[in-house]
Amino acid sequence: MYTLPNLPYAYEALEPHIDALTMQIHHDKHHQAYLDKLNAALTNYPELAALSAEDLLWHFEDQVKVQTPADIQTAIRNHGGGFANHNLFWEILSPEGPREAVGQLATAIASQFGSFANFRSQLIDVAIKQFGSGWAWLSLNEKQELVLSSSANQDSPLLIHHYPILGVDVWEHAYYLKYQNRRPDYLEAIWNVLDWQKIEERYLAALNKS
Q: Which residues pair with 151 in a beta bridge?
């Protein structure tokens, strides 16, 4: 069964951009709830519980390598997505690290979007326009191209075989205590805590996976 990963930094480490109470509730309550419901759904399916959460989602639609029983498909999509998405989110945040793209990812972003500044503006726009709860993503598609997208609720790019490099949580629980309904303010602030070394590592892993 899956376990909740510890935050790789203290709750208050991302202040003033993301406050300690939001981090504590987000990790200890919301992320834990997705984990608990995912584990409950997999109780009678040990062969699925032996897979990584990412593989559960990667093979969800194709139903070839992994046969997801109909009675738990909604739970896998919602709670498996919530668990995997938050694992990624904590990983790419940091009080330290480069604040712009580095390495091969920097080159790819410049090629795909013209400049890092253009990419930044486009990702913020995608995140602002996501209606209701969801995520904004930078992913690598099956052609090894960088793509921007948004998804509702806890849907993951993994469901369509896009490997997520960066995900920005735009559920209100990610920002409401500090920013209330000011999603654009949260989306400006989060660039101060994105760790582009970690995002680069995910990009290199995606190149090897696709």
A: 135
